[in-house]
Amino acid sequence: MDLGKIGFFQLAGTRLDYLAQRQKLVAENVVNANTPDYQARDLKPFDSVMDGIRPVETARTSGLHLASTRSTAGFREEGRAALWESTPSGNAVSLEQEMIKGSETRDAFALTTSLFQRNVQMLRMAWKNG
Amino acid sequence: MMNDVLGATLKIAGAGLQAQSTRLRVVAENLANADSTATAKGGDPYRRKTVSFDSVMDRGVGAELVQVKQIGRDRSDFQLAYDPSHPAADDKGYVKKPNVQPLVEMMDMREAGRAFEASMNVIEQSRAMMTRVVDLLRS
User: Fold this and answer.
1) Gap from B130 CA to chain A (nearest CA, Å)
2) Which of A29, B58, B60, B137 could pair with A40 as two cysteines, CB 3.0-4.6 Å apart?
3) Residue B57: which domain range?
4) Where are chain A's structural domains?
């Protein structure tokens, strides 16, 4: 069985890759915080991937079933904050901003790996009881 | 592939730590020599050293690493102090003192320390992420 063929695992894998790449850019920005004329860089928000995916909705086979209260529009991330500051040497890296981005990335990574684990557990439960 | 990227993060942050410690070393040299005058008559004292950084693309890591571009010399004027008994005093009795300003050096030191800590933080974050990936095997 190929986990990569299940939509969720594929998405989780892409998300983990994205977050790792973002962490790498954060590291580059941090070490170049004192390099003249260096501009901080960031990845485009993840919603370019999310746009292709519609949220799952439960099927309503009877008129008595309640409709989902969640909107079916795609999830969107908030726009990224612009650069916070730029020094006279032409450097535009704010260490504070990079630290925030770094912990955001770490938390999102933790969330994704937890979801991954949970889904594997669910699959395992299905196999056991099947 | 993802672990490669996180591993590269550690290398990038490592380069940052190295660059900042070079900077701290130069600050230490400057502070230690803040009173180093010449020994010969009318000679030049210690000239303050400066560090400049540059980002270079590292093909192996695939990222822009920081490196010390050069350790230069501060060409600003020396301070003069009147002390005719000093061995380095010129004909008029003035001694040239190094152009090191302790306040500037202390600020430089603080900034380097802050950047150093930031790189350490990135290493910790990346390590936490790598641990999460390894933990996937355990469930």
Assistant:
1) 9
2) A29
3) 1-138
4) 3-54+74-129
